[in-house]
Specification:
2 strands; two-stranded parallel sheet; 6 helices; mainly alpha; Arc Repressor Mutant, subunit A; 44% helix
């Protein structure tokens, strides 16, 4: 069951377009797991190194509801996430992304046809 939830989360995260971000709670909701934002974080921490179903999972596009990178600023993962976002032209000031400028707002019909759970 837990593995199925991880797969739902990874599949949803794969839909976040380049240059946009989503929040943990938003991914939980879109994955059919409302209120499970922490589970999203756990699932992203367990993405296989080779990706999922032959595709990478862009974990770095998921940030917290305040628009911040959740890793401590001095950590290796903070630096990696910030760099990945900046490489995609997402503006990161300190540890914050302006959600009104970069938050993913998926079209519901896109989700209905793309998600397979």
């Amino acid at each position: 069951m837990l593995n199925d939830h991880y797969h739902q989360i990874w599949q949803t995260v794969q839909l976040i377009p380049k240059g946009q971000v989503a929040c943990y709670g938003q991914i939980a909701d879109l994955s059919g797991l409302p209120g499970r934002a922490r589970l999203v974080g756990k699932a992203l921490g367990r993405v296989p190194k080779e990706g999922w179903q032959g595709q990478s999972v862009p974990w770095f596009r998921v940030i917290n509801s305040q628009g911040k990178i959740s890793f401590p600023p001095s950590s290796e993962y903070f630096v990696k996430q910030k760099q990945h976002l900046q490489d995609e032209q997402v503006v990161v000031l300190g540890s914050r992304v302006k959600l009104k400028d970069f938050q993913w707002q998926p079209d519901l019909s896109e989700l209905l046809f793309s998600l397979k759970f």
